[in-house]
Structures are given as structure tokens and as C-alpha cells.
UniProtKB/TrEMBL annotation:
SUPFAM superfamilies: ATPase domain of HSP90 chaperone/DNA topoisomerase II/histidine kinase, Homodimeric domain of signal transducing histidine kinase. Signal peptide: none annotated. It is found in: Cell membrane. Keywords: Kinase, Membrane, Phosphoprotein, Transferase, Transmembrane, Transmembrane helix, Two-component regulatory system. This is histidine kinase. GO terms for molecular function: phosphorelay sensor kinase activity. It is an enzyme of class 2 (transferase).
Length: 439
């Protein structure tokens, strides 16, 4: 594909304007020349016809031939009258390409009846006037083109000033300067719309640049935090493995079993962290969940049954509709609800009341998990969904683990076209509410 032709815009506009003006001047000159020639021809013919008509009228009035010739004569004309007797009055008629002649036979008194009148006009004057007009038109056209060219040379600098401003700003942006804008005085003109679009583009580019930098910073911080989180279980695995290897053959079997259990636990902890990190990577890459019919109420009931086994001291209340159907991935939605239930139990230290409510409207399904723990401060209700964020004990650590459960849960909810939010309870019982909304 060939590149954009980038010839001088000033030269293009100037040459185009001069070409259009030249065509207009040529057309106008041709029209003026044609009209002038036609009017001159018409005027000359009218003059000759008028002289002949005057001669006929004078002949009927019995005017003497000499007086008739004198009265018919006019500047630029040559009048010749040949009487029936053969006598010739006036100038001798001549022939030539520059003469226009009109002949007539007069009637009147016996002396003039039958006389032949010849009125001639020299068209050289007409040709000279036409040539003069042509020269005037050519000179005026050349002068108009020259003046227009000079006007365009200076006028284009002023007219293209906004484009020069755009070019200068673009080069400044490319050189690293940020924040500059054209800010057009009017946005309803061609240049105003172009300048507004240019400013909008700069806003979008700088916004994308800031977002990219923020994303890069978050990625660096996430990698650093992940490395820090992995260091602890890996260090535990290493310490437990070294301790097991250092035991002799006569070591206490109970101590050996304890170290082996610790080794397995630290390995599982590191494995869960790696799995969470991989899950976040899949969400960032654009997770496409299944779209199968899923009953949220049934998923909630299964989690409640599991909770009765692992946390029998927690009182569970199940409210809402008996069936709430959505389209989604049953395993992923179970993962979300399991994370919310486990976090609530940790917030209540295994004692309290957990309320799970599943409801539906015409367009959405809603599932809430409410606990009676210390709750989440308003300033932390969005922060708990950040990656590797664990609130301190004074503010009730709702995330547990490495701080990846809630970010994963929100990512799964959004992959389904829904949302996961942290709210506060409004029934006076304290605690926090996590609300899952799905289409």
C-alpha cells in the first residue's frame, strides 16, 4: 500500500485556486468577447439599416439628392447615390473584406425615383475595438491571477495557522510534553471540529498512557507481593524438608510424623497460592464460562450443608426463593459462593449467624451472604477486592489466605456478566453483606 501523498498543502491550495480562477476568467473573457462582438455587430447593422430608412424617407419628402446624401452621411460611413441620369453623388463605393454595405433603390420625385443608394461601413474600427477588448481582458486576467497568487501566499499562512498549531502540539507530545491542548474557540467549524477531535485523541492517549502505567505498576506490585507470599510456604517446605533429612534412624517417630505433616501442609499452601495465581491469570486473559442452567438456590443449599459439617457452631439462615435459575458455570459459581461462606465463617471466628438469601427479579438474580462479624469499614469495601490485600485484625480480615479469594470471586462474577459487591447490614445485627448479582 502506497503512503499518503504529502505535498505542500499551501502549494496545492494555491495552484488549485489559481487554476479555478484561471478557468473562470477565461470563461468570463470568452463570454464578454462574444457579447461585445454580438452587440457591436447588431449596432452596426442597426446603424446601416437606419441610414437606409432615413434616405428612403427623405426621398419621399422630395429632398434634393445632395441634401439627402449630406443628411444620410455619418462618421464611419460612406454614402454613394447614383441618380437615374447616371450622376453620382457622395463617395465612390469600394469593395473589401473590411467593409459592410447596404444597398437600396429610392422612390420619390421623378429626379430621384430609381436612384441606387449604397451605404458602406468600415468594420476595421469594430475589429480594432475587439482587439482592444481582448487585450484588456488578457491584461486584467493576468493581473487578477498575479494579485490572487500574492494574496494566497500571505493568506494561506494565516488560514493554515491552526494546522501549524496542531503540528507543533503533536511534535511537543511526541517529545514528551504532556497536557497541551488546542482548545478551539469554536467547535462548529471544520477546523474547530478537527481541533476538538485532536484534543479528544490526546485525552484518550494520555488516559491510556496513565492506565498503562498504573497497570504496569499494579503488575509489578502484584508480582512482588506474590513472590513475597510464596516465600513463606516455600521457606516452610524447605525448613521441614531439611528437618526431616536431618533426623537420624533413631529419631522419634512422633516428631518425624509431625515434620512430615508440616511439610505436606506447607506444600498444599504453596500449591493453593499457585492455583489462585493461575486462576487470576485466566481471568485476566478473558475467562469464558459455560452457559448452562444453574439453580443458585441449590448451590447455596449445598454450601450450607457443607458449612454444617465444617462449622457446626455457625447458625445458618436460608431465605429467598426456592429456585433461582441463571445461565453460567456451576463449578465457578460454587467457587464464588464457597469463598464468600468461608470468609464469613473466618470473620465470625466460627461462631455467629450466617444468612444466605437467593432472590430473582425480571432481569437479575441476586444472592447475598450476610454475617454477624465485625463487618468491613466503608473505606475498605472496594479495597478488599484488590489482589493480595489482607485487612489487619482490627478491621476484620475478610479475605483470609493470601488475599486472592475475593478478587477471583469478583472476576468470575464479571465474567458471567454480573457483579460482586461488599455492603453493610441495615438490620442492626452488624457484620457485612456480600451481594452477587447475575443476569
Amino acid at each position: 500500500m502506497s503512503g499518503v501523498r504529502t505535498g505542500s498543502l499551501r502549494r496545492r491550495v494555491t495552484l488549485t485556486a489559481l487554476a479555478v480562477l484561471g478557468v473562470v476568467l477565461v470563461a468570463a473573457g470568452i463570454a464578454v468577447h462574444a457579447v461585445f462582438t454580438a452587440q457591436a455587430e447588431r449596432g452596426l447593422n442597426a446603424l446601416l439599416a437606419g441610414r437606409v430608412q432615413l434616405a428612403k424617407q427623405l426621398a419621399r419628402q422630395n429632398v434634393t439628392p445632395a441634401n439627402l446624401v449630406r443628411r444620410v452621411d455619418a462618421p464611419g460611413l460612406r454614402v454613394s447615390l447614383t441618380l437615374p441620369s447616371g450622376e453620382r453623388l457622395g463617395e465612390e463605393p469600394v469593395r473589401g473584406s473590411d467593409l459592410r454595405q447596404v444597398r437600396a433603390t429610392l422612390t420619390g420625385s421623378p429626379r430621384i425615383a430609381g436612384a441606387r443608394l449604397v451605404v458602406s461601413a468600415d468594420t476595421a474600427l469594430l475589429s480594432g475595438a475587439t482587439r482592444t477588448l481582448r487585450q484588456v481582458l488578457l491584461g486584467a486576467g493576468a493581473a487578477a491571477l498575479l494579485l490572487t497568487a500574492l494574496g494566497l501566499v500571505f493568506g494561506m499562512r494565516l488560514a493554515l495557522g491552526p494546522l501549524d498549531a496542531m503540528t507543533g502540539l503533536a511534535r511537543a507530545i511526541a517529545g514528551g510534553r504532556r497536557g497541551g491542548r488546542l482548545r478551539p474557540s469554536r467547535a462548529d467549524t471544520e477546523l474547530g471540529r478537527a481541533a476538538s477531535a485532536f484534543d479528544d485523541m490526546l485525552d484518550a492517549l494520555e488516559g491510556a498512557e496513565r492506565a498503562a502505567r498504573a497497570s504496569e505498576e499494579r503488575t509489578r506490585r502484584f508480582v512482588a507481593d506474590a513472590a513475597h507470599e510464596l516465600r513463606t510456604p516455600i521457606a516452610g517446605v524447605r525448613a521441614a524438608a531439611e528437618a526431616v533429612l536431618s533426623l537420624g534412624p533413631d529419631a522419634d517417630p512422633v516428631q518425624r510424623d509431625r515434620l512430615q505433616v508440616l511439610l505436606v501442609r506447607e506444600s498444599e499452601r504453596a500449591g493453593r497460592l499457585v492455583e489462585d495465581l493461575l486462576e487470576l491469570a485466566r481471568l485476566d486473559a478473558g475467562l469464558v464460562p459455560a452457559r448452562d442452567p444453574v439453580d443458585l438456590a441449590a448451590v447455596a443449599g449445598a454450601q450450607v450443608e457443607r458449612l454444617a459439617l465444617v462449622a457446626p457452631s455457625v447458625t445458618v439462615e436460608v431465605l429467598g426463593d426456592p429456585h433461582v435459575w441463571v445461565r453460567g458455570d456451576a463449578d465457578r459459581l460454587t467457587q464464588v459462593l464457597g469463598n464468600l461462606v468461608d470468609n464469613a465463617c473466618r470473620a465470625m471466628d466460627g461462631h455467629g449467624t450466617l444468612t444466605v438469601t437467593a432472590t430473582r427479579t425480571a432481569s437479575h438474580a441476586r444472592l447475598t451472604v450476610a454475617d454477624t462479624g465485625p463487618g468491613v469499614a466503608p473505606r475498605d469495601r472496594e479495597r478488599v477486592f484488590d489482589r493480595l490485600v489482607r485487612l489487619d485484625a482490627a478491621r476484620s480480615d475478610r479475605t483470609g489466605g493470601a488475599g486472592l479469594g475475593l478478587p477471583i470471586a469478583r472476576g468470575i462474577a464479571r465474567a458471567h456478566g454480573g457483579e460482586l459487591r461488599c455492603l453493610s447490614r441495615e438490620d442492626g445485627r452488624g457484620g457485612a453483606v456480600f451481594e452477587l448479582t447475575l443476569p
